[in-house]
Design goal:
The radius of gyration is 61 Å and the shape is rod-shaped. The chain has 564 residues and is α+β, with helices and mostly antiparallel strands. The chain is built from 14 helices and 20 strands. A hairpin with a 2-residue loop joins strand 17 and strand 18. Helices cover 51% and strands 21% of the residues. Among the domains are: 217 residues, 2-Layer Sandwich (Beta-Lactamase), CATH 3.30.450; 158 residues, Histidine kinase-like ATPase, C-terminal domain (Heat Shock Protein 90, 2-Layer Sandwich), CATH 3.30.565.10. Strands 1, 2, 3, 4, 5, 6 and 7 form a seven-stranded antiparallel beta sheet that branches.
């Protein structure tokens, strides 16, 4: 976003600058060519006006009354010889009859009576046409001041050609002169004039007729051209200046290229500086982000190195201080957890071992008094074995938590395993006033497991259910199959487990009972996972709990069954 905020305005400004400079330079080129066209028009006008004034001077000489015809012819021939603009000079009376002429042949120069004739000063000039030599020509007539006749001249525009041809625009640009109806009078390519080509449909000529901007770009002979036009003062002629677009706009194109290069260089320089500055600015934030993520993953030794003294530096210092404080708090929590765990273990051991040790102690005291009684010695032996068995069980639980005992895998009939265990614990349930029933699937299902380990799991679950269920409660143990797994459920109608305890009920040293180490479910979970199964619980306070053990089915069978 920062880069975009910096780059977008620069690009917009660069684009606007390029367009503005290019457009301004193009307009300057167009205006310069217009000025050339206007100067050409002024030169053409000056050329025609000069010719008319010469014609007026000849007419003034012709008005002398003492001149004989041969003198008039001599004057006309002298002027024709001196001024090549005149192809023929003829003196006519008011009826159009020739009086004198510079030509030896009968004169063929009529009065310019065409409605399109143009009056310049006191001379009338007809429309231009092509003569027999395919050169543009026109007729100019001046009435004598006494009104007694006309001086008529047939004009040749070869000098006009020379003037226009000498006008260069750039390297390959040129000027041309046309009449209003598109007749080409002068062109840098003289053959076009000789061929009598018409430019009636020329874009600039059409624009000038419609009083629009006298400039246009078009393609002629696969060459893009820029054309501008200007009026010839006092004459219905137009001057058009044409120049190849590539040459005309060479400077704007060069300026555009330079601007693009400059803006590109500036943009890359800005991006480079911005990247370096942005990296310097963003790197502390990235360090803080990485440090925060590592801290969240438990890597409390993570620290960030920010040497600046600005707000980011202060934030980095605060982060490091927080990390140090978290380490101290975690160590404090660990100490408290260890103390609490050791306390729970000590209380559990005292509770679980005090009763067997007390029984052994009491029996030992009686043994001192009744050592010679054989019957009591037998009672003492059974008591000692029973209590020591309880002590070994507590010690085994502690050892299995620290280092689980490896289990062996054999095909086991899950229904028979569950049924035998329920039968062995039926007396315990009855003594507690709890009704225990089974629902075993009709199919014979096998899993791979350790019989001792499985009995320990089921015994622990049923014992917990008996202890959690009040008198007249019920316990249901059932088996079934589901999606290639054997399912064993132990459901009770006991007090239930609070929802906030369900997630930790299988953790070590966690128990909902008032006594004990809380190792039964933790050991059961480890054994189930060793056998490739899962154990889960659902519970509702005041309704009861359901423990679900799931094992994958196996196609293997015990060796004796396979032999049959």
């Amino acid at each position: 976003m920062m880069a975009a905020a910096a780059v977008v305005p620069l690009l917009a400004y660069g684009a606007a600058s390029i367009w503005s400079v290019r457009d301004g330079a193009e307009q300057a080129v167009i205006q310069g060519n217009k000025d050339v066209a206007r100067r050409v028009g002024e030169q053409v006008e000056q050329y025609v006006v000069t010719t008319v004034r010469i014609l007026n001077a000849v007419a003034a000489d012709m008005q002398r009354t003492d001149l004989a015809q041969w003198q008039q012819i001599r004057i006309l021939q002298n002027f024709r010889a001196r001024f090549p603009e005149f192809a023929e000079l003829t003196l006519l009376d008011n009826h159009g009859n020739p009086i004198a002429s510079s030509s030896l042949e009968p004169p063929e120069t009529p009065l310019p009576d065409h409605p399109d004739s143009v009056k310049i000063e006191n001379a009338m000039i007809s429309r231009f046409t092509l003569d027999e030599d395919l050169l543009p020509t026109a007729v100019a007539a001046v009435q004598l001041s006494d009104g007694d006749g006309w001086l008529v001249a047939r004009l040749r525009l070869e000098q006009l050609w020379t003037r226009v041809d000498g006008i260069g625009v750039g390297t390959t640009g040129y000027a041309l002169v046309v009449t209003n109806d598109g007749l080409l009078l002068a062109h840098g390519v003289k053959s076009m004039v000789a061929r009598g080509e018409s430019l009636r449909e020329h874009a600039v000529l059409d624009a000038m007729r419609k009083d629009r901007e006298p400039s246009a770009e078009y393609v002629s002979n696969d060459t893009a051209l820029l054309a501008v036009g200007a009026d010839v003062p006092q004459l219905p002629w137009k001057v058009i200046v044409e120049q190849p677009t590539r040459e005309a706009f060479a400077i704007p194109i060069s300026l555009q290229r330079q601007l693009i290069i400059s803006i590109t260089v500036a943009l890359f320089a800005m991006l480079l500086v911005g990247a370096l500055w942005g990296r310097r600015f963003i790197e502390p934030i990235l360090r803080l982000t990485r440090g925060t993520r590592a801290l969240a993953e438990g890597q409390l030794d993570t620290r960030v190195a920010i040497t600046s003294t600005d707000e980011l530096g202060q934030l980095g210092t605060a982060f490091n201080t927080m990390a140090d404080r978290l380490v101290e708090l975690q160590e404090d929590v660990r100490k408290k957890e260890r103390h609490a765990m050791f306390g729970r273990i000590a209380i559990g051991l005292v509770h679980d071992l005090s009763h067997p040790i007390q029984n052994v102690g009491n029996s030992s005291k009686l043994m001192l008094q009744m050592w010679d009684d054989p019957q009591y010695r037998e009672v003492f032996r059974r008591t000692l074995e029973r209590e020591l068995s309880l002590v070994r069980r507590v010690l085994d639980d502690l050892r299995n938590i620290a280092k689980p005992t490896p289990v062996e895998r054999f095909p086991i009939d899950i229904n028979k395993c569950v049924a035998d265990l329920v039968d062995s614990m039926m007396t315990t349930a009855e003594n507690a006033g709890v009704a225990m029933t089974t629902e075993l699937t009709a199919d014979t299902i096998y899993i791979e497991g350790d019989l001792f380990a499985l009995n320990r799991i089921y015994r622990n679950l049923i014992s917990n259910a008996v202890q959690a269920t009040p008198p007249r409660g019920r316990i249901l143990v059932r088996t079934f199959t589901q999606q290639g797994h054997a399912i064993v459920e132990v459901a009770d109608t006991g007090c239930g487990i609070p929802a906030d305890r369900l997630e930790t009920i299988f953790d070590d040293y966690v128990t909902t009972k008032r006594r004990g180490l809380g190792l039964g479910l933790a050991i059961s979970k480890k054994v189930v996972e060793q056998l490739g199964g899962t154990i889960a619980v659902t519970s509702q306070v005041g309704v009861g709990s359901t423990f679900t053990v799931r094992f994958p089915l196996t196609a293997a069978r015990p060796a004796q069954i396979a032999a049959v």
